[in-house]
Batch of 3 targets.
Target 1
Amino acid sequence: MKRKVQHVRFNELVPCRTAFVDTYNPGAEGKENFTIIGGGVSENSDQYVHIQETPGFNIGGAGQPAGCINSLHSHRTAEVFIIHTGSWRFFWGLKGADGDVVLDPGDLISLPTHMFRGFENLTPISATNENGYGFMFSVLGGDDSGGGVVWAPEVLEQARSNGLILVESGQLINTRNGETIPDGLLPVVPVAGDELNFYSRNTITDESKVVAPRPNDAIYCETELIGRNSNAVIGERPGFEVRRVQWGRGQGIPWYVPNMDVVLISNAGSVVLSNGKTLGSGDVAFIQAGEEEIGVKPLSEDVSELFIVTATDDPAGETRFLGEDTR
């Protein structure tokens, strides 16, 4: 029986440039948000969703010009980023000053829930990339992404002064366009006091606990990056597992898709599925469970890299660590 395969081409991704309340805040202008699988956490009802159904998690994307910042925020479910292009700095803490790390293409970072985090595109401007644009994929735990985003207080306050108000229904009110808050709705109240201190309970003290760098050697390898097994690079149980398959130049060793709902993210090079579909760099495929055997082989003479995401029966919500291994 043939398995249902849905795919989204990187060059056909539809961005939303007004997805969040910090859209007009200085330093945040120009960022793009993508919802590839599932509705994600966009606060704009006009956000385009490429594949509505979810396999137990959401796949999204963030694209930004050089110097653009995604403001401090927190999530109630797991958030994992896979760097596709560019150089990115992640920072965290109540004021974003607890620590930071810079990641490059092929690197992965897993961020704890209930911890303010932000990120900035550091990609150099060049003749071939005039605005230093960079892109990364995101994986959000849960089918409904846990109820959206919690913003640092100063982000909401600054947004209001710049014409955007987030109300309790999750709707954005753009006062620049003459919009007013509908009757019966109230603006989101910034977290404060004990509730604000709650967001300091999780932090990152050891980058190796949350970062999985791309291997240097261009050889065939399969690595469990996030999962319950003892050999996983990051020992977490966020409601999904992530593996990486990498092929070196000219290698043709096949990898076989397991009999379950699987998302494939082609992060570098090109691969071909045994059912005839090809995935170029940046393409995403959602393959639903079935008995049909589907193999994957590289097409590119360069290094090919595939990230595989599968759901687990672990809770997708507040199961995250305080620096300890959760396997």
Target 2
Amino acid sequence: MTVPTITLNDGHEIPQLGFGVFQVDPDETERIVTDALEAGYRHIDTAAIYGNEVGVGKAIEKSGIARDELFITTKLWNSDQGTQSAHDAIDLSLAKLGLDSVDLYLIHWPSPHRDLYVESWLALEEIQAAGKATSIGVSNFQVPHLEKIIAASSTVPAVNQIELHPEFQQAEVSAFARENGIHIEAWGPLGQGKYDLFGNPAIVEAAAQTGKSPAQVVIRWHLQAGRILFPKSNSAARIAENFDVFDFELSDAQVASIDALEADNRVGANPDTATF
């Protein structure tokens, strides 16, 4: 199965469906990423703070998959924001991953209490120019944060990776992204199990109508909206199931019923107030 790709604002392509390793045990990461690669995933999303870049790198190395067939993302952690520390952080991440470059490097959070995200963004431009990251972007940035880095630099982020799921659809940030050529990546695309998404009648009905699981229905909803996403699982069967979403489409009515679930239900941290 070939995953659809999206062309970013810098001309590079990204697979629309990837595999995330947030909260994946470092000791289990190599096995789990291997399962994902065997299921067909070629886009892996990790981060320095996850502590599992080494496992991701081992899985990549042992897979035998050509580097140019893979899309690897990692992220600059908050305490590493700043000019020199950002350069040091990407070098450490690349060493752990066993790679010469990543396909996408993100500022993980704006961390506004540090007020270093503009400086860090300028450092990411330098990292990109040095060939250590093909594309650069941000994660968890609100509109004012985006406006500030765009005004201060010559680069518009390729992506903004944000919490986004049926009960928290981030209309304002998504609209700004569309207007500025920034692609949205959804983290926690299935709600992280923090509310009964799969028991919602709109999801249950769409699953029954399509003969797919509730998770597959929600993944398909994201894909049809043009978002990039990377569901995670530790189960090989679930990893494969989450990838099996390209042989059906939701109807306009089914999409509308899921769109209507918006409830401003943020289940993760608020980027404006998070101080980690």
Target 3
Amino acid sequence: MGSSIPPDLIKSLMALGLLESEAKIYIALVMMNNSEVKELIDFVGMSKPNTYESLRSLEEKGLIVAVSERPIVYQAVAPEIGLELLIDTHLRAKKEAAKLFATVDRNIREYPPDKMWFIFSEKNVDYKIRDMVRNAKREVIFLGSEKYLKFLKPLARKDLCLSLTVISEEPGLESALRKTFGTGGANVHVIKKSEAVKLLSISKTMSQEEFVPSFEKIFLQFNYDKMMILMVDDAEFLYVPPFFSDDPAAMNSKSRIMIENMKLVHSAMDSYFSRDRFAV
């Protein structure tokens, strides 16, 4: 046969829970409409035992059916249905796992309160932001790029103390954010990159103006499209530093000392907003 199985499609199905061999066979049957086992083995290039085991597993999952017995011929369930079956299986497994995790002893090893965790992948950072926002009860402080605003939308429906300082060049964003988040008296500011440089410089020097120019030279080199500081309920913070790298390493901590330090930085920034903004 002239057609080959797309490797990216195999990866997608593996991400949904299929083994590589199962993914190959399911895709092959979709492509061929139906097939005898011998023809299938030739097409996917797998061993006979591995092929039969994968066929058995796919049949149990409801992704293929035997449409003839002698010789045995298999047919794939339409991808639209097959993908829904896989997603439903994941959702059921998630619900069951959550139920079982509630029964697991999570105090086998107590970590010291100043323990820090480092999150390295962008996907993990996204999940952590969602988790912190979802569990916020009293206060959320955010300083960072507008790219993270999509994760903060649920806060508009929460009754809590909210402080947003967003780095963006987009005109009209501040009024839009006040309209979205301002009903609960949120403290909203939108600043440009140049303002962020000055603001961070002053917060680092705690208003010791003679050191500000030196810090500005350092902060000018940062990538503010990645930067984010998120603090929730005086209990946890997440920091994505504004470094130029493909992997946005983030620091997450529940350390009281670290949280208090970050609150001091935020206080210095907040007090600066009460002055004539960014006067030279």
